Input
Amino acid sequence: MCGIVGYIGSRGAYDILIQGLKRLEYRGYDSAGVALVDTDGCLNVHKARGKVANLEQTAAAGNTNGTLGIAHTRWATHGEPNDINAHPHVSQSGDIAIVHNGTIENYAVLKKALAEHGYTFKSETDTEVLVQLIDYIHSENKCSVYDAVREALLQVEGAYAIAVVEKSNPDQLIVARKSSPLVIGVGDDETFIASDATPIVGYTDRVIYLKDDEIALIRRGEPIQLSSIHSNTPSKVDIQKLKLSLAQLEKGGYDTFMLKEIFEQPDTLRDCLRGRITDDGSQVVLSGVIDHQDIFAKAERITLVACGTSWHAALIGKRLIQDFCSLPVSVEYASEFRYSNPYLNDKDVVIAISQSGETADTLAAIQMAHDKGAFVYGICNVVGASIPRNTDSGTYIHVGPEIGVASTKAFTGQVTVLTLLAMAIGQIRGTVSRARVKEVATALRSMPEILEKTLKLAPEMQKLSRVFTYAHNFLYLGRGYNYPTALEGALKLKEISYIHAEGYPAAEMKHGPIALIDHEMPSVIIAPSDSLYDKIISNVQQVKSRGGAVVAIVSQGNKSMDTIADFSVKIPRVPECLTPIVASVPLQLLAYYIAVGKGKNVDQPRNLAKSVTVE
Ligand code: F6R
Output
């Protein structure tokens, strides 16, 4: 949540910052702002409520000169989204400006203390407190702004990635981080900083991932200096090569990123599977598991932790691990797990799943699992993010940048990796036969072609979306492997169309939610030809007999549902454990077309942000 970007070099900073903010807008779009330091000693700040486009309009009337600048796109945590609460925030002296991603938990105490020293505050934000604290230390201690930033951060509790500029110092940019991400792009005679690498792509492919508790002093024309915030000792500058292309960040002819990402799934699964199944299909090769065979052989229990869509993938992962590894498995919301005092020891494996790799609750759950001695395995998309760096081992899903706020290709990538992981652990533990691995791995390998066929349902789903313009509520029902698919289908619909939708295990419906069903409440029922198909048929009949319309997602060749459901959508047949991957595609399309039909901004739904770096 919130995106920060900064630039120091020889070009005009403004255009680079605006372009960077547009790339980071998925992280929050409540307000945007920019601060530019001009060589004639001016600090020009422009801010606007809403999207970056509003900021451009506001800034057009002002001075946008300067080759040093910082900028911010906000997902509001402290104070409502308005111009005053927008970042950058400027110190009372008018000398120091800051942008911040994260939350300062002890801001109220610090604010009170600063007020006693005569500081007043314009905004309701925690960030303004931090810049005033820096200002206070700078003037009281008569130290450099760099030292004041470091000293202030020692007094701060919470999470932050910050960038700081000083009006009288057009040659210096200071950045620091704890828990929130920050990447530095190293150009020939220029430096970029950002919350992720997307604003940097196209300028340089040399990046430094700032570590937790690190502060960087970036001075024009000088090598970057990294130090520990706590000990102030210099740390090693580790420049890595960025593997991200501009094409991956563009819409590629689609109307929206979400549609592009739905249609990318055959390719993203190809990338996700590459090199992970042997040529004869009889073995899964995951280096993250092979390198820690002993741990997986001796594990007594597995716990999956995640949030949102990743939590739905975790529920499918639980079924997969139970089926392939004969191990006790539980799934926890990371936000609950971290405060639940779970019993864990060194025989536990905790699997943390996260697209962004930055979700604060998942990171905290990882920390707790480590503290209790568990081995932590990460399943992430964003390379170099905090979760892969804070886990003992892991597997990237390699689906490329997911920019649409609603997760689509990451979900299918996560389920694919979980399928591979379950088989890889089962191989080590001897709980899965070679023949079974071969059956599932071969089907998995043909998944890109299967999804190509499934995507041909798009026109049918678009047509279907127009049938339900009357509906204010939807039920999504599924059983077994597809109960989590139902949850994910409902989440997709609610987050982008703002229609209330509930996912439920189909057989649980009769224990309460069935009371909701009438002719205005359609149900989407995921009913592929699996071991529970006969059972789910009676659940469909229960809905129909109460006047509810039914859209059934069934396997190709199914005829029995045609006479029961109002609409049956036919998906390719795959082994039962792979049905969630295929069934989720028409659900993504249905949600997408309903939301677009209602005129919603599917890429940036209200109140949401892609990377949830606050608790
Ligand atoms: C829904 C969605 C969110 C995320 C959740 C966790 O479409 O995208 O529910 O799944 O915020 O995010 P990650 O996976 O980045 O930890």
In short: DSSP finds 20 helices and 25 strands in the chain. The mean pLDDT is 94.
